[in-house]
Write a structure and sequence with these properties.
The chain is mainly beta and about 300 residues long. It is built from 4 helices and 19 strands. About 15% of the residues lie in helices and about 40% in strands.
Amino acid sequence: MRWTYYGPDQKEVIGFAGGRLYIYSKLKAVQHSNWQESVIVTLDSKTDNIPAVELALQTICTGQCSASAPLVAKLSKVDEHVGGTIDYNSPVGPDAEALVQIQYHVIMNLQVPGEVLPPKNTDWVGPQIRCDGKTGQWTGCVIPEHMANVTVRRSLYRAAAITYEWAQNNLTTLSMGTKSKSLHYKKMTEEEKKRSRDLTCNRAPDRFVKDPSVPDDSCDEFPFAATQEGGKAGTLCVDILPQQVGDVWDVSNVKVLRNGNVKANAPCVRGHVTNKDNVDAGSKEFGAAVRSDRILDGEAFQVIIAP
């Protein structure tokens, strides 16, 4: 931001001041459809003939939303900063959703004794925000243009993470949860999820067969059962055995057991994964991300494999 003090002809520059305005918030950090923006105004420079500058930040939350009173900051010293907050609320109800948007209006004034200087006005529009009461135990808000993600760490989920990563690297024709080929959440009852998993893992003629080398072996299907892309017939899947070599879990150590000749076009993979890692990856990461990122029925998300 820059304030300029012009002479009577509105051309000669007599003085100036420069500063910055920071606005940030964490929508996922709060429960319910209330959130807060933190605001910091800094004065980086000014000429001696300008005693002080004043900035007034007003926000309007359009749609099913309201904002608190404007924030006013007065600064008189270089490197000075003033902070404050603006509160928002969307009274969205259970099983409902609302799209809202914040509009920002800033009035900047140079406070020079004996002078009435015209203010500088700046306007801009913030990102669209979706608030809903359709996910989890309470209402909440997210920025829908930021694709939700499920992060699965190799160090925590071992063969489960490798199963998903191998699928993303090798089953390249269909959607496997990458940013360009995202998965889509499908809201299901527990019975519907079970039927989806059974179709992939437990139906004839190609039921999943446990491998004696994997303790408490289980069928970890990918894409997840609770996605539009999941629930494919197991006979179509590539069966793989992730292996730990030298204390390292890596896709290069995966052994392909079945359907490796059609892997690029296969719609699913079945990995041999300990039951604990299978369940934990699904509940602690996928299930938790659905709640925290507020992934709605039919909404796209990506699966990120991390160290």
